[in-house]
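We treat protein structure as text, and this decision shapes the records that our systems exchange. Because each token names a local backbone shape, the row as a whole describes the fold. For reference, a complete record is included directly beneath this paragraph.
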Amino acid sequence: MTIAAAVLALAVGAAGATTKQAPDHRKLKYPPLREVKVPEVTRVTLPNGMKLLLLEDHELPLIHLSARIRTGSIYEPAEKIGLADITGEVMRTGGTPTMTGDKIDEALEAMAASVEIGIGLDYGMASLSVLKEDLDKTLGILADILMNPAFPQNKIELAKIQHRSAIARRNDEPDGIASREFAKLIYGPDSVYARHTEYATIDAITRDDLVAFHKRFFGPNAMMAAVWGDFETREMIHKIEKAFGGWAKIDATVPPMPKVDYEYTRTVCVVPRSDLNQSNILLGHLGGLRNDPDYFALVVMNQILGGGFTGRLFKNVRSRQGLAYSVFGSYGADYAHPGVFSLGCQTKSESTVQAIQSILSEIEKIRRTEVSDEELKLAKESFLNSFVFNFDSAGEIVTRLLTYEYYGYPADFLLQTRDRVETVTKADILRVAKKHLNPTQVHILVVGNPEGFDKPLSTLGDVETLDVTIPSPSLDSGLDDRS
């Protein structure tokens, strides 16, 4: 066959191929998802009160530990905000009386291991990751840090300098301003769920405060740990019991989580920034808890309203109306305190009020009429198809169980969520939207340049200008005020 004939034959074949009609994706059939099988996790309480969740995984010669300690920044005094964070940080960087933080870094680096300590809003955390052969040494380091932190003054000062630097930079990013100030609108400026550090609160923290905070909250009976990896369960229990054997119990009772005193109201707030040509917008109100019976329907509603590329906000506000660079929404539900229902976007200054009105309209729509069959199907499939990825490693499984244990949720809460999501109906979504969403009483916050807005913000209600000026540091801080 000549070259010309071969080329002709290929062309004819290609032309014939293009006449074949591609199958309709809507008619494709998929097999059902595999049934999720959760492996059995061993639960043990040691004589010193420490709780363990253990899951063997012999695929790689690695061992991991993740712990929760019953503490948090919600328990630090208002005049010393930052104490919990600095305590956790310096426990790790400061080392122990027998091994400095720098020496610990060197030892861990030599073993390609890691040990981390930190304190968040309502929990402390500790973690370990190491090759099986180096477990004893690394576990000993972690136990020594948790039981005997040295809190050297130079590391405390270094941590305080880093916090002061973060305070000085906190107004640099508009989205950071928006999220910080919006939390204060929802929970209140003095709430433990919204307050933040200032130069004065950092300056007030002393080494004695760190020592007292550690003594008050760190003890074996205030700690629970998930352990997974290449080990034999009985041997691992013995190793942990030996490593923490000298740790004395404490009074592990803590005050209950502070309640959120919330009243629905409409506010319109602005943080003026003449240097911006776009607006960062947040609006919403208080959210809920994951143990609310409506949580499962809210998960589906959330997917339909703000769920990425398929959500109404993306399709209507961003794509069809072209009002936003990014748009997002979430009905936040936390484990132990109410989350935040928030929707928002970034838009050019000239479409600020129009974008807000469009977002509010989407909330009204989902409260007024039932979602479509297609929306319901897509939202549920999106959740259920991604559900299996919650179980794709031993670490994900056991750390999730640790979270449920810490907050007092049933161990099968995630499986309950899957089962309940499958049964959600259009009527359920309409009911929970009417019950939990209140578009007429939302907090509206804009960080942007009012001179460039398409309409005055007063179109939406009385406007309050928020002052985000950073209080000046003391002379000892050595930092200048930045607003």
Q: What stands out?
A: The radius of gyration is 27 Å. Residues 42-243 form a domain with the Cytochrome Bc1 Complex; Chain A, domain 1 fold (CATH 3.30.830.10). The mean pLDDT is 92.
